[in-house]
Amino acid sequence: MFIAILRVIVRRLLAIVPVFAVVTVLVFGALRILPVDPAQMSLPPSATIEQVEAKREAMGLNRPIWTQYSMWAQAAITGDLGESAQYRTSTAAVVLDRLPATIELVICALIFAVCVGMTGGLLIFAVRGTALESVGLVVTSAVMALPDFLLALLFILLLGVLIPIFPVNGRLDPGMQVPSYTGFLLIDAVLTGDFRVIVSAFEHIALPVMALGLAFSPTIVRVLHASLINTYQQSYIQQARLRGLSDREILFGQALKNAIVPVVILVGTQFGGLFGGTLLVEMIFSFPGLGNLMVKAMQTADLSVIMAISLIYCATTLIFNSIADALAYLLNPRLRNG
Amino acid sequence: MNSVDRRLFMKLAAAAGGTLLVSPNFAFAGEVDNLSIAWTTDTASWDPNQRLSPDPQTILKMVFDQPIDMTSDLKLTPGLLTEWTLADDAMSMHVTLRDDVTFSDGSKLTTEDFRYTFFERVNQGEELDIAVGFGTVSDIEILSPTEAVMQFSKPSPIVAQWLSFSASYVVSKAYAEKVGPEKMKTSPMGTGPYVLTEYQRDSRIVLTRRDDYWGDLPSAKQITIEIIPDPTARLAALESGTVDIATELSIRDVKRLEQGGTLNAVTNPIARIIYVTIRADGVFADRNVRLAAHHAVDKDLLSKAFFGGDAVTINQPTIPGMPSFLPDFHFDYDVAKAQELLAASGFGPDNPVTLDFATTNGQFPGDYDIARAVVTMWEKVGIKANLTVITESQWYELNASGKLPPASLFVWENGTGDPELFAGNMFDADLPFATYRTDEVTAMIKPLLKEPDYDTRIKGYEEFNQYLIEEGAMIPLLQAIQTIGYRNGIEIKPWANGLIRPEAITIS
């Protein structure tokens, strides 16, 4: 089975390559259509038209777009993503500097969303057929209607100002520093072994994680609830009842294994959306990740940074789709047999 | 005199210890261990000569010093230079440096550093915005470690103002050559009152006071700058006690804080104007249409609607109190006059003149809403404007290619205290900012740019400002305001260039 799963992952990863290439072409083309001049952007505001033209020539912007793309692609393969107009330094360095923070945020948000979503889905399913089920579904709909950035602002006002439990910005208390072992602050904080630092790191990430994760969790609740109801109509559940298994044994031993497959696929396919959700959430919480960087890059038309982050979003979505496929394959014997 | 016996001494010591436990920020009277400021944006680079943009200057000025400083009302005052004397022909300037200044690495500041910053760096081909003001420096002759003469390739009457403006910070030649241009962007080392001790890009900056600083020591031993781009989050940080000071709050929140409680707020008119750019061609080739567009705008209403009435309305390309400002010059809001002018050119509410109007959205507070209000005001008199949203960078691109719409909402910052950086640069056809380009404007402005006599120059700008408005070359709207919220116990003296100066913060 392991080899079969590995085969699925490899096959999906290979399929990613052409998709990824097409996306690079689309993003590159879209950014070149924008009425923004990267040459002008990378020069001081006093630059004359002649200086801008010389810079444009040096950057290859006067060449046909496919030549420009070819130049970009060749450089990108070697890790050179160009120079950020805003920071006037290597784009790869700027982006890679922020990537770990966003990965930490998204993974924590995902764990939070899955925990809340699974718990919520199971609780609402447990009270099915009662008024509480309707209440639960209404609450889920209400949370679903709140976008992540609004949840972020609500959490700031509620848990940052009215009941100041969590800090509302930054990643650590002032004065605290964590040596960078892995580049991931939470892991590095744990590696210090300093309880104050660990608590501070988790306190600071709490509100962004809750905002991002809670916005995603209602979908999990809904899908799991619907999937469980569907699963309970299957004959093998009736047979399990006839065999005298308890409700708990049926739910956790029989039904959940199958009912969870749509949830796994949902989480995998929506992971990219969670990544995209970091844009505003990171900005609101001054979280130094890719989302914050992307907003600034869009405000300043920093094309090479926009391109790099777009491709990271794209690659993340594709990779997690593949992982979701593999997990679904692992969990569902029918897929393996098919 | 009462003597202090052992028992009394123990009581006092216990009281002092208790105070320290209760209030860890307690230090000497007027001093604080840490002061936190919520700021809107991080500096794109720690190389202080690289960017002219106004927002990071507050941060950079804590680490670096400028040759010439500014008072809160933008008058020149000695900084690293004790004296500066511009030659009568404005082709050279003799400068004298202080002899007691050290960089934070302990090395002494000399004219070698001054020459390196304002001449050598600019000529090495590094992409530095400082070249805007010092591109005309042809050499800096070093007379001694504290004396030098700046030479210019053409008359440079406002070089002293440039030495006090954005990005004009002296860097260490030895350090810059040792670490190279890339490290300069990430590891600052200056002569300023603070050194960078902790940095999380786009999140937090921690600066620690240098007790060997040559100037007056600021009251905060440490300054923590929290980068919080969202105004609601900045207010939340202030209200939750996370920060002591928060800038650029919404007017509504400022009004609320001004009513008292544990927090205070202030609105500070700054050297930044909001105006509508006009092109000299297309629909605006007709002077009647240009003037009608100006008469139709109710600036008081804009101030009241978007700045709670705190933004000063302006009728000239400068701000009150700045040299070249004409206190007696007025341009009336007059709908009837606007309609009359348009009628003379064959237009009216039933037969409107149509034009495109560009604005940014979010570039500065209220930009898009102000533009929409102007569109509505124009519509009443017979000007139909199609509003389009562009970014600031698009504005430059469109203007450079001659495709900028006839009108656009723009903001202009001038922290020099000199009119050259208002009307001078806004209408110099050789610069990328000019939208209203005519031979007459060029003929008026070119002599002013090289006029060495200060009084003659200011008089010239007064006439030029009046000409621009009477010709309808622009529509000045408002002087922008900076909003600052702060906790009780703090007093802030605002600066007209929008900088938050640590030495201007007093703590009771």
UniProtKB/TrEMBL annotation, chain A:
Record's subcellular location = Cell membrane
Give the membrane topology.
Multi-pass membrane protein
* Keywords carried by this UniProt record: Cell membrane, Membrane, Transmembrane, Transmembrane helix, Transport
Give residue ranges for domain ABC transmembrane type-1: 99-324
Set out the biological process GO terms recorded for this chain's protein: transmembrane transport
The residue ranges crossing the membrane are 12-34, 103-125, 137-166, 205-224, 259-285, 305-331
Q: Which GO terms describe its cellular component?
A: plasma membrane
In terms of InterPro entries, this protein maps to: BPD_transp_1_N, MetI-like, MetI-like_sf
Family membership, please give it: Belongs to the binding-protein-dependent transport system permease family.
Q: Matching PANTHER family, A to Z? A: DIPEPTIDE TRANSPORT SYSTEM PERMEASE PROTEIN DPPB-RELATED
The protein in question is named: Peptide/nickel transport system permease protein
Protein's organism: Celeribacter baekdonensis
From TrEMBL, chain B:
- Solute-binding protein family domain ranges (all copies): 75-427
The lineage's top-level taxon is: Bacteria
Pfam families assigned: SBP_bac_5 (PF00496)
Q: Can you say where in the cell this protein is located?
A: Periplasm
Keywords of the record, alphabetical order, are:
Signal, Transport
Instruction: Provide the coiled-coil residue spans.
Output: none
Q: Where are the transmembrane segments?
A: none
Q: Which PROSITE patterns match?
A: TAT (PS51318)
Gene Ontology terms: biological process: peptide transport
This entry's Gene Ontology molecular function terms read: peptide transmembrane transporter activity
Q: Name one GO cellular component term.
A: outer membrane-bounded periplasmic space
Signal peptide range equals 1-29
**Where does the UniProt entry say this protein principally localizes?**
periplasm
Family of the protein in this entry: Belongs to the bacterial solute-binding protein 5 family.
Q: What is this protein called?
A: Peptide/nickel transport system substrate-binding protein
This chain's source organism reads: Celeribacter baekdonensis
